[in-house]
Design brief:
globular; about 190 residues; 6 helices; two-stranded antiparallel ribbon
């Protein structure tokens, strides 16, 4: 069975991303064709990149990097939940991505963005990064607006159309993750 990690890409106190990631997980968990796991960056306590060797070498010296690499390697694909800060993704998510290389290769990735314009600029930056990491980013995405999907910019209340967008994203991540399995096995 395909295993998808839902990565909560914010570590900020009072983050909106926790409610968004739990919603993604709750909707995803209704499916029987895929196994999902919520991965919270707070649980990994990754400092600013502190490995001597480039991630492409796969020679991780730090225990926190080894634990992170093991977790990411266990998945066939991902859904990244990202806020938009200053027209990009969070520094915490970018840093977590930059710790690894091979563990991301030949896996599918979909995006759930949130912000004043739905996190779309953060997602576009992540798509560029995904290409460099040899990931297949899916076309469907969820764009959550702080104005319409959050009450008072903090209480998450997505519309039904967002569930439809999420299911389309999950469908594509599942399909691409399964399709890339032969490349991961090689």
């Amino acid at each position: 069975m395909v295993k998808i990690g839902i990565i909560l890409g914010s570590t900020r106190p009072g983050r909106n991303g926790e409610a968004v990631a739990r919603w993604v997980y709750d909707v995803a968990s209704q499916r029987t064709d895929v196994e999902f796991e919520l991965v919270d960056l707070l649980d990994y306590n990754l400092p600013h990149l502190d490995e001597m060797m480039p991630p492409s070498m796969g020679q991780y010296a730090q225990p926190h990097t080894q634990a992170w690499a093991s977790k990411i390697a266990s998945f066939d694909g991902f859904v990244m939940v990202t806020p938009e800060y200053n027209h990009s993704t969070s520094g915490a998510l970018k840093n977590a991505i930059d710790f690894l290389y091979g563990e991301w290769n030949n896996k599918a990735v979909g995006f759930v963005g949130y912000g004043s314009v739905g996190g779309t600029r953060a997602v576009e930056h992540l798509r560029l990064i995904a290409g460099e990491l040899q990931m297949a980013d899916v076309r469907a995405q969820v764009a959550l607006s702080l104005f319409t999907d959050f009450e008072n910019f903090s209480t998450f209340k997505p519309g039904q159309h967002q569930v439809d967008s999420l299911n389309a994203t999950l469908d594509q991540v599942q399909a691409w993750s399964a399709a890339l399995a032969p490349l991961r096995a090689a």
